[in-house]
């Protein structure tokens, strides 16, 4: 039996979540709370598999409650179920240990999917939140040097690393030797190397060629 604890200060929301849980075979509501400061004690007593938790709660906000639950009950997963979709709230909730983040604008199908996922210790995010996280990951991570290469520079770089001469590369790609030289210079500059040997090491490291 999957045990779900619901914490939200709006009765209509609690009722809606309760109906979803109780209508799902093998799930049960093991507790409800409308006050943040009550949730941890209730969770410790009931040992739910999943806590469906609003971010905005009186007494203690949902992010602080999430941190408490994850510290005291590491086997219990937290699904933040909220209207808040700003970067700071999402990041704060995930940093606190929530493995699910669902917007209240989503439908019953998404709520079922979220509880199901967390019930098997898999993360679940609203599509809008998942897109936000992906965007942040792409822009905040350290970019590979290869990302600055054009497609043609990548082609030339691989052929250089494989030992091709400018003449051979020009023939292979159907471009002039002067164009090869231009691409070669750009590729080595972007790779941050000066010699052919350094370039080969760069190519191996970035999987342009096999060692």
Automatic annotation (TrEMBL):
InterPro entries: CheY-like_superfamily (IPR011006), NreC/VraR/RcsB-like_REC (IPR058245), Sig_transdc_resp-reg_C-effctor (IPR016032), Sig_transdc_resp-reg_receiver (IPR001789), Tscrpt_reg_LuxR_C (IPR000792), WalR-like (IPR039420). It comes from Brevundimonas lenta. Residues 3-119 form the Response regulatory domain. The modification 4-aspartylphosphate is found at residue 54. Keywords: DNA-binding, Phosphoprotein, Transcription, Transcription regulation. Residues 142-207 form the HTH luxR-type domain. Pfam families: GerE (PF00196), Response_reg (PF00072). This is DNA-binding NarL/FixJ family response regulator. The keyword Kinase does not apply. One of its GO terms (molecular function) is DNA binding. PROSITE patterns: HTH_LUXR_1, HTH_LUXR_2, RESPONSE_REGULATORY. GO terms for biological process: phosphorelay signal transduction system; regulation of DNA-templated transcription. The keyword Transcription applies. It comes from the Bacteria.
């Amino acid at each position: 039996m999957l045990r779900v604890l619901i914490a939200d200060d709006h009765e209509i929301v609690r009722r809606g979540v309760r109906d979803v849980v109780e209508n799902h075979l093998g799930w049960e509501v093991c507790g409800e709370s409308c006050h943040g400061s009550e949730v941890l004690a209730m969770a410790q007593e009931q040992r739910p598999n999943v806590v469906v938790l609003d971010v905005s709660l009186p007494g203690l906000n949902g992010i602080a409650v999430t941190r408490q639950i994850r510290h005291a009950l590491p086997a219990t997963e937290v699904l933040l179920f909220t209207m808040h979709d700003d970067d700071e709230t999402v990041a704060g909730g995930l940093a606190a240990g929530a493995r699910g983040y669902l917007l209240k604008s989503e439908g019953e199908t998404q709520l079922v999917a979220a509880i199901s996922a967390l019930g098997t210790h898999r993360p679940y995010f609203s599509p809008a939140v998942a897109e936000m996280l992906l965007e942040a990951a792409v822009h905040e991570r350290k970019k590979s040097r290869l990302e600055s290469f054009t497609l043609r520079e990548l082609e030339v770089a691989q052929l250089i690393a494989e030992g091709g001469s400018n003449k051979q590369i020009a023939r292979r790609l159907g471009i002039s030797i002067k164009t090869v030289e231009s691409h070669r210079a750009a590729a080595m500059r972007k790779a941050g190397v000066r010699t052919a040997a350094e370039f080969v090491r760069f190519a191996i490291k970035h999987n342009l060629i096999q060692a």
